[in-house]
Design goal:
The complex is a heterotrimer of chains A (about 500), B (about 325) and C (about 300).
Chain A lengths: L2 E10 L2 E11 L3 E6 L6 H8 L7 E6 L2 E3 L4 H6 L2 E4 L11 H6 L5 E2 L2 E2 L1 H13 L16 H14 L4 E5 L7 H16 L3 E5 L3 H7 L2 E6 L2 E8 L5 H9 L18 E10 L6 E6 L3 E5 L6 H8 L5 E8 L2 E3 L4 H6 L3 E4 L3 H5 L6 H6 L3 H4 L8 H14 L16 H14 L4 E5 L7 H16 L3 E5 L3 H7 L2 E6 L2 E7 L4 H27 L1
Parallel strand pairs in A: 3-10, 3-11, 6-9, 9-10, 15-20, 15-21, 18-19, 19-20
Antiparallel strand pairs in A: 1-2, 1-4, 4-5, 7-8, 11-12, 13-14, 13-16, 16-17, 21-22
Helix pairs in contact in A: 4-5, 14-15, 15-16
Chain B lengths: L1 H39 L6 H25 L8 H17 L5 H26 L3 H20 L9 H8 L7 H19 L1 H11 L1 H6 L4 H27 L11 H10 L11 H20 L7 H31 L1
Helix pairs in contact in B: 1-12, 2-7, 2-10, 2-11, 2-12, 3-4, 3-5, 3-10, 4-5, 4-10, 6-10, 7-8, 8-10, 11-12, 11-13
Chain C lengths: L1 H15 L6 H26 L7 H17 L5 H26 L3 H20 L9 H8 L1 E2 L2 E2 L3 H16 L1 H11 L1 H6 L4 H27 L11 H10 L11 H20 L5 H27 L1
Antiparallel strand pairs in C: 1-2
Helix pairs in contact in C: 1-12, 2-7, 2-10, 2-11, 2-12, 3-4, 3-5, 3-10, 4-5, 4-10, 6-10, 7-8, 8-10, 11-12, 11-13
The chains are: A alpha/beta (about 500), B mainly alpha (about 325), C mainly alpha (about 300).
């Protein structure tokens, strides 16, 4: 199957996800699709699989225009995909999940014997140890990922799209997957492979397309002709590289937040670190390593089982989030602005003032719009939130301005410690720099920041020190020298050392 | 500075107008109904009928408020009728059987309403189960309990002051309506000008974001349900005053009007957005249609059909209005 | 666990009351089981796709008087009247489903509104006057029995078997549960989500109609109030049977067992001459207990 993506564009409120993307996937090739977080890969995959409809441009299948109204149409056209998020029915069996698009029917009834037999065939290609009759909700994350892959294979589609298929499986299983993909390639199938692991891409793929900021940075280049560093620079875009925020003169201040031997109900074991006043402490790790969960524990959103938290030297106990925010002045900015960060339907004024409502209220207990305005206006000015009025609904702002509102509300609350999770996800490159400068500036005013980010350049630009987390434990601490190459190599070193150890462990438990 | 604040003020005023556009449109519909009814059935605007309308309206408004305060949190309360009748029967029992003076009896009855609402709120927060199921079950529990304890008797030998208040009239307005308006004013203050009210709305608009901003969301939900119980009790006692007797059948038919008033008035079922004034006008529309059909002798039988169609039309219109508004704002950006 | 509770209840009741195990009492119990079972199934199907249906009772009432009216006033043969009644139920459910899916409005408010419309038509047409003169064979079916087994039990049992088969072994049935289990995943797997939700509502309407016709045969007359008290019951059985309220997890057998339990309690109270109001009280308590138990189990699973 030949798939032509012809100047496809897609916008969401406040952000242009794809701005006219064109490239072609040939039959009998494995085509890598690369780019940093938020570059538009997943959006593109969702358009090809009929989840989203493009605002502009066309999708051609073997030269004929395809207009998918739903995933159903895409499947009928011979396209199957492994999406990044989990897409299984928890209470259905493995076999039924794999075959759901195509349940074998005999005399009007589902033939489960046949369904499990067929599912077995696809599952065996990757991992023969999973029972097709087990309920999906009882599987481990890695097993679910393998079921997803088997499900995509079961359609025997002409085009197979895989979005980070190897994110949570072992190297052994990944190799099995690659063998299957190579065989499908030799059968003339077209395959699109998305991964952030460069080694994988170089070993497996024939050509590569790189997306950056919703645009094509490299279209269908031969992998053999691309060096590792050329792919990376296409992804990051040297010339548009995040501006340096200048040398940070940061005095080794007193400890603002000390954590000793922390264990949580979410699975952290023996986490210890110190965040100093005015410092930006980076917390790096792969998705699922427990970074966001650590933040949740620190703001009282998860049970703490053991260990000690000290704030400015005094031990504290955090009852709930409200206690963390209002009493201890610890704030948290979620990466999920829409669901966890802001109240999109409410005006900017209310979103900034929400953290201090009880404090704002007058002696009679009255909280007027004017009092809120008085608190919000100087912050909106200081942070340069671009809006005609503070009464504007936050949902109508751009991603960058929304993030400024998120920061403003914690400045309003005059927090001492602010945990920021993925501050620039879904924010365009120019605004990104402004957000970075803003974060640096609030630390100069005395706020201590814990920065969680999967964006390596961002981490190296901003953080003073970097902690590396893996499997819910801290495995390394590095003083940031702000030189990209050596720093990223050292950070990935900590993570990979762990991955290999983790894999051999997993295999041992398999056997 | 002065220029900036002027701009803010002006856009603030415009925002207020657009916020009220739903209520204004609704008021227009009410006026049209009044003109139609008044011209077809002159009895509709007779002082007697106006008085009757003002009494029914007062109760419809408070029933609507009772649902509205939980809609603010994105929940619902199906136990409003049950709480209302429990309070009424307790008040009746205290006054008739125990001879408790009526101010005390009414206070205790209001407290019972608040308590039953509080129990709903606690059960919802603790179990994490949605409010629909919890209040469906508690409605059955409360009504069953009330019937077991009261043996479904009617208390109709109440202190004369109760019925006298229901019959009292200022011109053609019942004092019950003044009570309802006072409650409305208090709710406006709560939801516009207090941290607690704002917290309830924030919890309804986006519970997770509110929680992560330090808002005690569980407390907000419990407070809203307690308030809902209190208002249901108030509506019950107002009805007690109108009827002059405590009857175990009170509250059976509250479900539909309790949702009609706030939903017609523009409250979002998903939470976080309510309009006190809108709910009052919504209740007025319901009362108007009920009274008009009665006067035109269409019969009570067709009333439900009208109200059901009304609710459908209202939600459909609202749906298309938001879709249209979204499309327009997206189009402007692109 | 439900089965154990039922067995215990059965033994206690037969020990305490000599009237319990008589053929007639068993017949009475089985008879009251019929309508409730079908009504519970009607709600169960909407719960399965993560929806709810407040209009079951109202639609049932409308179907009951329509069937009664067609037989008594229009002189339709029984089969035609029943057939048309089932079609009305299907149509009403279809309307609920289409309105919910097309507008994207919360199913609660849609079915609250349509419930009011159905009841309004019912009362407007009948002015609350029942149809008493139903055809002889229809009424005879309602009282007929084979020893303790009422003929009335045949349609609900058939419905239960077909429903179980539908949900376990047919593609639309599996899709229905898939949509309830994870709507987004189902959609990505090419399952037409909207159509499945409409299907669930339509079948719910059909079952409500079956319940109404059974109630009519049981009473021997077409009462406009049929269905008025179905709401709590319709939710109680699937919930006590363990239907997850978020959809996707329902069980025909567990729902049926829950209905048996409730009917048993009702019957026990009648035999013990307890205030009938206790039934309502206990129904509420049972739902809350079931919800609490579910919660407890979830917490224990989390902790493990």
């Amino acid at each position: 199957m030949r798939v032509t993506i012809d100047s496809i564009g897609k916008s969401f409120p406040g952000v242009v996800a794809l701005g006219g993307v064109s490239f072609e996937v040939h039959p009998g090739e494995i085509h890598a699709l690369m780019g940093e977080n938020g570059a538009g890969k997943s959006t593109l995959i969702k358009i090809v699989t009929g989840v989203y409809r493009p605002d502009r441009g066309r999708l051609l299948i073997d030269g004929a225009a395809a207009n998918f109204a739903s995933p159903r149409d895409a499947i009928a056209a011979g396209i199957s995909a492994v999406h990044q998020e989990r897409n299984l029915i928890p209470r259905f069996s493995v076999g039924e999940n794999i075959m759901i698009e195509n349940l074998p029917i005999r005399r009007g009834l589902v033939d489960y014997g046949e369904a499990h037999a067929q599912a077995r065939r696809f599952l065996d290609m990757i991992d023969p140890s999973i029972d097709t009759r087990a309920e999906v909700r009882r599987l481990s994350v890695a097993q679910m990922q393998i079921v997803e892959i088997a499900k995509a294979l079961s359609l025997e589609a002409g085009l197979l799209l895989l979005d980070e298929p190897t994110a949570s499986i072992t190297d052994h299983e990944a190799q099995a997957l690659f063998a299957v993909l190579r065989r499908l390639r030799s059968e003339g199938k077209a395959i699109v492979f998305v991964s952030h692991k460069l080694e994988e891409v170089i070993a497996l793929c024939d050509r590569v397309t790189v997306l950056r900021d919703g645009k094509v940075a490299a279209a269908g280049e031969l992998i053999a002709a691309m060096s590792r560093s050329r792919i990376v620079s296409a992804m990051i875009g040297r010339e548009e590289r995040v501006a340096e925020i200048g040398p940070r003169t940061f005095a080794r201040g007193t400890p603002a937040l000390e954590v000793r031997g922390l264990a949580t109900s979410l699975g952290h074991k023996d986490v210890s670190f110190t965040l100093r006043q005015g410092e930006i402490l980076g917390l790096y790790g792969l998705v699922g390593s427990g970074r966001t969960e650590l933040a949740r524990a620190l703001i009282g959103d998860a049970r703490i089982l053991a260990g000690e938290i000290r704030l400015k030297g005094a031990p504290i106990s955090i009852a709930d989030v409200s206690d963390a925010v209002r009493r201890h002045r610890i704030g948290y900015i979620s990466e999920d602005r829409k669901n966890e960060g802001l109240i999109l339907a409410h005006p900017i004024r209310a979103n900034i003032a929400i953290t201090i409502w009880p404090r704002l209220a007058s002696r009679l207990g009255l909280l007027t719009r004017r009092l809120e305005e008085r608190a919000a206006t100087p912050l909106a000015r200081k942070l340069d939130i671009r809006t005609p009025s503070l009464e504007q609904q936050v949902g109508k702002l751009s991603g960058g301005n929304q993030q400024k509102v998120s920061i403003a509300k914690w400045l309003a609350a005059s927090v001492d410690v602010l945990i920021i999770d993925e501050p620039t996800v879904g924010i365009d490159i120019r605004t990104k720099t402004a957000i970075h400068e803003l974060i640096a500036e609030i630390t100069r005013a005395g706020v201590s920041v814990m920065l969680i980010s999967s964006d390596m350049p961002e981490m190296i630009t901003l953080a003073d020190r970097i902690l590396v987390m893996r499997d819910f434990a801290l495995v390394g601490e590095i003083e940031n020298e702000r030189r990209y190459e050596p720093m990223s190599r050292r950070i990935m070193g900590f993570i990979h050392a762990g991955l290999e150890a983790g894999e051999s462990q997993q295999e041992a438990s398999h056997g | 500075m002065s220029l900036a604040s002027d701009i803010e003020l002006r856009s603030g005023r415009r925002a207020w107008l657009s916020e009220q556009s739903g209520a204004i449109g609704l008021a227009g519909i009410v006026i049209i109904f009044w003109i139609v009814f008044a011209s077809w059935a002159p009895g509709f605007v007779s002082p007697f009928n106006l008085f009757a309308i003002s009494r029914t309206l007062a109760i419809d408004i408070v029933i609507g408020f009772s649902t509205m305060v939980v809609l603010a949190t994105g929940g619902m309360n199906l136990a409003i009728g049950a709480i209302g009748v429990c309070s009424v029967m307790l008040a009746g029992y205290l006054m008739q059987k125990l001879g408790v003076p009526y101010p005390l009896a009414l206070t205790v009855a209001l407290l019972l309403g608040a308590l039953l609402g509080w129990a709903n709120g606690v059960a919802i927060v603790r179990s994490g189960v949605n409010s629909f199921i919890i209040t469906l079950a508690s409605a059955s529990l409360y009504t069953g309990g009330m019937l077991i304890l009261s043996k479904a008797v009617i208390y109709n030998a109440l202190p004369p002051a109760i019925a006298a208040f229901g019959r009292m009239r200022f011109g053609f307005v019942s004092p019950l309506l003044i009570v309802a308006l006072a409650i409305g004013a208090a709710l406006v203050v709560l939801f516009r000008f207090t941290a607690l009210g704002r917290e309830i709305l924030a919890a309804g608009a986006n519970a997770r974001a509110a929680q992560l901003s330090g808002v005690p969301v569980s407390r907000a939900i419990i407070v809203a349900h307690t308030l809902s119980g209190l208002l249901a009790a108030a509506a019950g006692l107002m009805l007690l005053s109108r009827l002059g007797a405590a009857m175990p059948s009170i509250g059976e038919d509250w479900l539909l009007p309790s949702f009609l008033a706030p939903v017609l008035g523009g409250a979002l079922l998903s939470g976080g957005s309510i309009s006190v004034v809108g709910a009052m006008i919504g209740a007025l529309l319901v009362t108007t249609i009920r009274s008009g059909l009665l006067i035109m002798q269409v019969g009570n039988f067709w009333l439900l059909l009208f109200l059901g169609m009304m609710l459908l039309l209202a939600v459909l219109l609202d749906r298309y209005r938001t879709v249209y508004a979204e499309r327009r704002s997206l189009g402007r950006r692109a | 666990m439900l089965a154990v509770a039922i067995a215990i209840g059965f033994v206690i009741l037969s020990l305490l009351s000599p009237a319990f195990l008589t053929e007639y009492n068993l017949y009475v119990m089985l008879r009251s089981f019929c309508v409730v079972l079908v009504v519970a199934f009607a709600q169960m199907l909407t719960l399965a796709v993560g929806q709810l249906n407040l209009a079951i009772g109202a639609l049932g009432g409308l179907v009951a008087i329509a069937v009664g009216g067609m037989m008594e006033k229009l002189g339709f043969p029984i089969s035609a009247a029943v057939g048309l009644g089932l079609l009305i139920g299907l149509g009403g459910g279809l309307a609920n489903g289409l309105l919910t899916v097309r507008t994207g409005i919360n199913g609660f408010i849609i079915t609250l509104a349509t419930a009011s419309v159905f009841t309004g038509i019912n009362l407007g047409v009948t002015e609350s006057i029942p149809f008493y003169n139903l055809p002889g064979p229809f009424v005879a079916f309602g009282v007929g029995r084979f020893f303790a087994v009422p003929y009335l039990l045949i349609p609900p049992v058939l419905a239960a078997l077909l429903l179980a088969l539908f949900l376990a072994r047919t593609a639309p049935g599996r899709y229905l549960l898939a949509v309830g289990g994870n709507a987004h995943a189902a959609e990505l797997s090419g399952i037409p989500r909207d159509r499945i939700i409409v299907l669930a509502h339509a079948l719910s309407g059909l079952l409500a109609a079956i319940g109404a016709i059974l109630a009519e045969a049981q009473l021997g007359s077409a009462q406009p109030t049929i269905g008025a008290d179905w709401l709590v019951m319709s939710f109680a059985a699937p919930i006590i049977g363990g239907a997850a309220l978020t959809g996707g997890h329902i069980s025909v057998a567990a729902t049926a067992l829950a209905v048996v339990l409730v009917v048993l309690i009702q019957n026990g109270m009648v035999l013990a001459k307890v205030d009938p109001y206790w039934v309502q009280f206990l129904l509420g308590a049972l739902i809350l207990a079931a919800v609490g138990l579910n919660r407890l189990r979830a917490v224990r699973v989390e902790a493990a």
